[in-house]
Amino acid sequence: MGIQADFIDYLKVKRRYSPRTVKLYGEAVEDFLRQAVPESQLSDEDILSALKFQVIRGYVSSLMDRGLDPRTVNLHLSAMSTFCSYLVRQNKLASNPVKEIVRPKEKKRLPSFFSPEALKLYFDTPVADDYPSVRNRMIVTLLYDTGLRRAEAASLRISDIDLSRRTISIIGKGNKQRMIPLVDSLVEKIGDYLLLREAFLNGSDSDSFFLTDAGGPAYPEFINRTVKAELSKANGLSGKKTPHTLRHSFATSLLNEGADLNSIKEVLGHSSLAATEVYTHNSFEKLKEIYRTAHPRAKK
Predict the structure, then answer these.
(1) pLDDT exceeding 70 applies to what percent of the chain?
(2) What is the pTM (predicted TM-score) of this model?
(3) What structural domains does the chain harbor?
């Protein structure tokens, strides 16, 4: 295998990146190589010789010339940086040239979220007692009550859940493990769900927490489709109906109820506090409301 294939293997096995991230990173590296190395000379030596500051900077300029937005350009650079860092660890490159590249500035995008009031309307809607209906409700409930990523929800196993200790053990991005506490209401719902799931399996053996209608393990796109279908039924929910919006809603609700940023960071599995701080913007309206209510000069 060549260094490209080895790199993809490394992302899958060692880093345990999601299939989507592996695909995006692989495509970004391929895109760079198509521009930097003639197809007839695509040997490992030619690839390594192309990984230089000047060549990569020229590639960034070409991405901007294509009209790609800064966020997409930075995704390509992240892929290239991970590729070069991997080669440094393999002693094939002396240093990572991408670290010297000045990245284009991105426009700050505030995460969208659903209000607790709008979500309450969805959760108050009665649900049928068949397995698919209860499973679909459980997917939305778990995502909103724990802030799990869609891939984490898809790969969740029954053995990851400890109802007696009220915790879920998650292996997240970068193979990092974290524990998420479960509220009492969610523990009760999980217990009821597991009873229905057992009857649905009818003796079959599977440790996957969420199952498809055919009884197989859930997968990220299945989680995506389920969330979209479920939330499309609800009134008052505007914006993208995705697992990530539920994750944003979970984090915003915690912050509005007084949770500190470090605690939210740990529950979400963020690698840095900067990634969590974006939720403070969502809470500004809540802060203004408190200010108008509590400030002595604001009272009539």
Answers:
(1) 88
(2) 0.64
(3) 3-100 (1.10.150), 116-290 (1.10.443.10)
